[in-house]
Please model this.
Amino acid sequence: MSARPVRRTTARPTFAALLAPLVLTACSSGATGATSDDRVGGATRGGGVPATVSVTPNGKAVKAGEPVRVTARGGSLTSVQVTDGKGRPLAGRLTERNTVWTSDRRAVPGMTYQVTAATKTKDGTPGSGKSTFSTAAADKVNLVEWHPGENTTIGVAHPISLRFDHPVKNKAEVERQLKVATSNKTEGSWGWVKDWSGRDRVDWRPREYWRPGTKVTLRAELNGIHSGAAGGWFVRDYATTFTIGARQIVKVDLDNHRLTLERDGKQIHDIPVSGGTPGGDKRSWRGTTVLMSKEGTINMNSETVGLGNAYNKMVDYSMRLTWSGMYAHAAPWNSAHLGRANRSSGCVGMSTADAAAFYRSVRVGDPFEITGKDTKGVPEQGNGFSNWNLSFEQWQQRSALR
Model:
């Protein structure tokens, strides 16, 4: 945006005078004229002393992560426009009797900003001009992997989950930038966990399972936020929108060796299964897990989960329940024990025909409510989406804002 045109009068104050104490920036634009429509006979009513303006941050390669602040002295601001190097406006608001303008968002790394300010003195003398400043590039960037994906339909137990490439020390600062909106004002909370990979992760789960049909939007306004020591800068925002599908709940009774799927309260499947072998490391997990992904036919190798050379085979209709390797899947080699005994290496196995039908019916995000006397316990937080094994009050305590 250009400055207002210069009026050629002998008494006009220049923008250099307007912004001489401006502290604008080392890379401010050349001075342009401040205009006045209040001139009579070559004089300015009230003496014509212009307002002065300062902008912070200022200079070249300044540190990012602070709001842009424009301050007027000897008058007030009538308008402020700040745009980044891509022409996008930076929103903000006037406060303190219109003498201070502060941006809603922070200056982001590696960006040049142009500031255009219009002022008036107490007697109404107007002025305007422009300045620029630039921020230093990020020395380290923290990327985010998030679930669920854009425009997906998921089961009623799937949390919103963000996993970070680098450590997040400024957890409260990051959490403040995460906005969840739902079509029915669903109550929920963020909670921080250490992901199975060892990386920091933050999940948002409702108090209870999602209501079917709920529309959910996440806006992670992270650009310009610093993760803290060893974490680096976030250099973009993230957003996703998804919908909650039918209320499907999978119940696995390891003592009776049965798996059932209920949809909207009606039983859809009742399947004989075999869970993890009792008495050792091959036992299954209990508690509530969430179907993380439907992976089809995959290679399962016991060496990858610390069980030596117990198995190495291709497995059909594989449905992941934990990062540590618990699946529901077809297990035709275990047919003698389906519905009779738990003799797997920790997974929930079923016949190929039952697995195929179940695989078609189940949805990512559906809860698996697993019960049984002889199990390894509940998965630790971060091993899959195990958030539901805590009460909502316990989960809320994991928020950095509590």
